[in-house]
Please model this.
Amino acid sequence: MKVLVTGTGSLLLGGVASELLRRGDEVVCLQRRPAAFTGHQKAHEVLADICDADAVALAANGCDAIIHGAARVGVVGSQKEFYDTNVHGTENILRAAEQQSISRLVFVSTPSVAHTGDSLVGAPASQAEIGRSRSYYAESKAIAERTVLNARNSQLAVVAIRPHLVWGPGDTQLVGRIVERAKSGRLAVVGTGNALVDSTYIDNAISAHIAALDALHIGSSCDGKAYVVSNGEPRTVNELMRSMCESAGVPFEPRHLSLTLGIRLGSLVERLWPLMQSSEPPITRFIAEQLGTAHWFDQRVVHNDLKWAPSVTLDEGFKQLTQWFASH
Model:
């Protein structure tokens, strides 16, 4: 099978491409910068932006399936920048799939498309919510996910996978930021830190996307649906942060903010930060809600429809993370 994978410069999508190559598939990697694994004889690299419709069409030529993960993430940037990449870039993918008669599309989404600030306890993957102004990322991904799922037809099978809080060795997003802030004494916990949240070890996130690709075909049980994927082992925010800090050998001594204060501070930062900085802010209203409320998800439908289950437990993952930090 020949698969177009977009966004392969990220830990997750790079891992997906590498695993597809390992099992013998041919992979076209669409990314903005070169990646180390693309020296493989069955890997073809297209260096381009997802907003370039011609480049996307070229990359999709001759492919049987697409795993689309290229996205603008975080909170820094204009509404147009997020929409151009996440919405219009996804439209380019759909257009290329139609032109090339590609029959399978796995869209890499995010649980934030359906997290509106309330606690989610044992929740299913509810419909993506549109109309939230405070997170360009979540809003643009929600629009893109709906666009993909609505594109399902008799020639194209689609599925959206929302991996929840992916982490592992080499992760510069979740693990890297928590460890860096703990080192500098700037780590903050919103609320008591006892909110239960799901997370996903990187190996499991990779295998879930490949399982979705394999399970997906026109008329399959997953066609046209969205799934939140996780380890299925909810732990408190305190436990997750402490384990990451311990793996890195740094003290876990966070500051505590009430949820109310965190939301107020986050709202203020959202307004002022773009005027002062170009880096990611320490807190936003959305981040405060994510850290201060429970969000974990029922995985039974995921396991049944995708014929998938996580192979690495959180404890095993933290052992591997500890070993990685020791060797780096």
Observations:
- The chain has eleven helices and 15 strands.
- Residues 227 and 301 are 8 Å apart (CA to CA).
